[in-house]
């Protein structure tokens, strides 16, 4: 994967709440109003309110992109050696594709998600989460949450190294945002309530479509005028497919030493995840990602 060395990264939709520089002020899950604010936030989240909104007084932990602006400036010739700069470049490329052709193809109205880096734990409109859950998207506040430490785990524990494996993960989470915009996510939640016995099957359809959307972006990356990604190689595509397989439910179950039990799967097998990433990557068309009918 090659990036445009001369292009400025757009940090307007990025929040950096990592520990250390400009991170948490008062403990690991700092929120504006301290412990009380936390409880209020969680209760509101349960009621379905968007508690993170645009009101800065109710924002979670403080964040600043000053450090990112410096590390990822065009004047730093080594900026793409940093995972956070690569992730922002991929994020901007995803915004470029999905904000134009991608949502047009699906007939959906586009709005940007935000990308929030954190360490250890984070408070969200979906409740509190620790890094242990891995990268995730919260529809309630339309944010993608990533502890960059996950990528060490992806490389070492899941055996999926490579810069494009990291791009795939972010593209998958971005795919969940697109599902929120199209209403597919809401449709799945409704189906799950109506048919609780099929809850996991519906979850798998949701996850496989996000994999497919990651593939669609891969095909279209480097296509736009504002594209930060200049090229994607066959090697990159391979490492994304490898990563999709590595986080398949069967692989994770094998990896954690337990038995492999398809009944408990929520994301799909390695073979299914590879298949749907490939479907999107071959077609480059998000309309090819009809995982619900296929399931
Ligand atoms: Zn997912």
Automatic annotation (TrEMBL):
It holds the Pfam family Zn_peptidase. It is a single-pass membrane protein. This is Metalloprotease. Residues 278-295 have a biased composition (Polar residues). Residues 246-295 are annotated as: Disordered. Keywords: Membrane, Transmembrane, Transmembrane helix. It is found in: Membrane. GO terms for cellular component: membrane.
């Amino acid at each position: 994967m090659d990036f445009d060395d001369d292009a400025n990264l757009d940090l307007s939709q990025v929040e950096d709440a990592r520990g250390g520089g400009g991170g948490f002020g008062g403990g690991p899950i700092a929120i504006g109003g301290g412990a009380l604010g936390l409880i209020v936030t969680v209760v509101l989240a349960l009621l379905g309110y968007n508690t993170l909104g645009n009101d800065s007084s109710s924002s979670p932990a403080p964040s600043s992109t000053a450090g990112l602006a410096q590390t990822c400036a065009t004047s730093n010739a080594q900026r793409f050696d940093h995972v956070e700069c690569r992730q922002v470049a991929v994020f901007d490329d995803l915004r470029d594709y999905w904000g134009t052709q991608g949502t047009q193809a699906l007939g959906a109205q586009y709005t940007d998600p935000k990308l929030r880096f954190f360490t250890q734990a984070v408070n969200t409109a979906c409740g509190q989460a620790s890094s242990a859950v891995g990268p995730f998207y919260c529809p309630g506040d339309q944010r993608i949450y990533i502890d960059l430490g996950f990528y060490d785990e992806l490389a070492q524990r899941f055996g999926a190294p490579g810069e494009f494996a990291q791009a795939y993960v972010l593209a998958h989470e971005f795919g969940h945002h697109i599902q929120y915009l199209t209403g597919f996510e809401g449709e799945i939640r409704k189906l799950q309530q109506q048919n609780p016995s099929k809850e996991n099957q519906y979850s798998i359809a949701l996850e496989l479509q996000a994999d497919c959307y990651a593939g669609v972006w891969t095909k279209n990356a480097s296509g736009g005028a504002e594209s930060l990604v200049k090229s994607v190689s066959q090697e990159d595509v391979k490492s994304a497919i490898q990563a999709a397989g590595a986080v398949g439910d069967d692989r994770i179950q094998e990896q954690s030493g337990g038995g492999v039990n398809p009944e408990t799967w929520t994301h799909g097998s390695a073979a299914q995840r590879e298949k749907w990433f490939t479907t999107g990557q071959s077609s480059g068309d998000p309309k090819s990602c009809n995982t619900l009918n296929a399931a």
